[in-house]
From TrEMBL:
Membrane spanning stretches: 284-305
UniProt protein name: Glycosyltransferase family 32 protein
A GO MF term: mannosyltransferase activity
Source species of the chain: Trichoderma harzianum CBS 226.95
Alphabetized Pfam families for the sequence: Gly_transf_sug (PF04488)
C-alpha cells in the first residue's frame, strides 16, 4: 500500500503543479517549439530571408529597389535610454547614426517623454509600441551605424530584423512600417507573458527574456510566420542575411562588426543569472542530454525501488512464518527447565 500511496501522491502533485504553472509550462513549450522548428522553417521558406546585397553596384541596387516597391519605413530612428542608462557613454554610437541620416528624425526616449507617450497611447511596453505607432528604425544604444539605411533596400521592406543565436530573431535592430500586424501581435501578447519565475527569488534575465526580450520576440515571430505560411496573414516579415542566405554576418551578437552596424555588446539588464543561462544556451545539447540522463536514472531508481518493495511483500504473504522465525529464532536451551546446579546458584 505504501508504494501505491506514493504513486497517488505523486500523480496529485504533478496534476496541481501542471494546473498552477500551466502558463509557465506553455511558455517553455513555445521555447522548445521555436528552437526545434526555426531552421526547418527557413529551409522550407527561404523567401523569409532578406538577402542584403554586398558590394553591389548602383545599377544593381536600383534594380533591387524597384523589385521591392516603394519606401514603407518612415525616416525616424528610435533609441531608448531609461533609468540609469548613461547617454554620454553611447554618444559616439548615437552620433554615427544621426550623422549618416541627416534628414531623418532622431528620437531619444527617456523616462520623461517615454512615460508620457506610454500613458497616452499604450499601457505596457515601449520599444514595440513606438514602432507600432510611428514605424521607422529601432536600434539599441550600443549599436553604431556604418551606412545610411535609406541607401539600402531595407527601408522598402515592411518588417526586418536580424537573426539570433542559436535560433530565432534579435530585437536589437528593427525596421518596420507603422502598424505592422506583427507588432500588434507582440503588444497583445505582452500581458499574458508577464510571469514571475522562481518565486520568492527573482530571476531578472529569464523574466526579461520571456516577457519582452529576445525569447519572447522569437516565439511570437515564429507564431506569426506559421500563420503567414497558412495564408491567415498578408504582411510579411524578413530576417536580415547576406546575399547567400547566411544570417551570421548580420547577427548582433556580442561585440561584432556587421556590414551595416557595429554592435558594442552591452547588456544593461544582464545579471548573475545571465551568465548561467548563457552558458546553458551555448551548450544546450549537453545540458539537455544531462537532464535526460538524470531523469532516466531517477525514474529507473524509483521503478526498481517500488518493484522490490512489492516483491518483498509478496514473499511475506507467501511465507508468513519466515518473518516470525526471524524474530524469535530457536535455541537449544529455550523451553528447558533449569538444572539443579543452575537453580542452586
Amino acid at each position: 500500500m505504501r508504494a501505491r500511496n506514493i504513486v497517488a501522491l505523486t500523480a496529485i502533485a504533478v496534476f496541481w503543479f501542471t494546473v498552477l504553472f500551466r502558463r509557465h509550462i506553455h511558455e517553455l513549450g513555445e521555447i522548445v517549439l521555436t528552437y526545434s522548428t526555426f531552421y526547418p522553417l527557413l529551409h522550407n521558406h527561404p523567401d523569409i530571408l532578406y538577402r542584403h546585397p554586398e558590394n553591389a553596384s548602383s545599377t544593381d541596387l536600383e534594380a533591387s529597389y524597384s523589385s521591392l516597391g516603394p519606401v514603407v519605413v518612415p525616416k525616424i530612428i528610435h533609441q531608448i535610454a531609461l533609468g540609469n542608462a548613461s547617454v554620454s557613454k553611447y554618444q559616439a554610437a548615437i552620433t554615427s547614426c544621426t550623422d549618416l541620416h541627416p534628414d531623418w528624425q532622431h528620437q531619444l526616449w527617456t523616462d520623461v517623454n517615454a512615460t508620457a507617450f506610454i500613458a497616452e497611447f499604450y499601457p505596457d511596453i515601449l520599444r514595440y509600441a513606438l514602432l507600432h505607432h510611428s514605424g521607422g528604425i529601432y536600434v539599441d544604444l550600443d549599436v553604431t551605424c556604418r551606412v545610411p539605411l535609406d541607401s539600402t533596400p531595407i527601408v522598402r521592406l515592411p518588417y526586418v530584423s536580424p537573426g539570433a543565436h542559436p535560433a530565432g530573431v534579435n530585437n536589437a535592430f528593427i525596421a518596420t512600417e507603422p502598424g505592422h500586424p506583427f507588432l500588434t501581435q507582440l503588444l497583445e501578447n505582452v500581458p499574458s507573458h508577464d510571469l514571475h519565475w522562481a518565486l520568492p527569488m527573482r530571476i531578472p534575465y529569464v523574466e526579461n527574456m520571456l516577457s519582452t526580450g529576445c525569447m519572447f520576440y522569437s516565439n511570437q515571430w515564429m507564431s506569426y510566420v506559421r500563420h503567414l505560411m497558412k495564408g491567415r496573414l498578408r504582411r510579411p516579415v524578413y530576417i536580415l542575411s547576406d546575399e547567400h542566405g547566411d544570417m551570421a554576418p548580420h547577427m548582433l551578437r556580442g561585440k561584432v562588426t556587421t556590414p551595416i552596424f557595429v554592435h558594442g555588446g552591452a547588456s544593461s539588464w544582464h545579471g548573475w543569472d545571465a551568465a548561467l543561462f548563457l552558458t546553458i544556451g551555448e551548450h544546450y545539447t549537453f545540458y539537455l542530454g544531462l537532464l535526460f540522463v538524470v531523469l532516466t536514472v531517477f525514474f529507473l531508481g524509483a521503478y526498481f525501488w517500488t518493484t522490490s518493495k512489492r516483491s518483498y511483500r509478496r514473499r511475506c504473504r507467501l511465507f508468513p512464518f519466515g518473518r516470525v522465525a526471524s524474530r524469535s529464532s530457536w535455541s537449544p536451551t529455550r523451553g528447558r527447565k533449569p538444572s539443579i546446579s543452575q537453580s542452586m546458584v
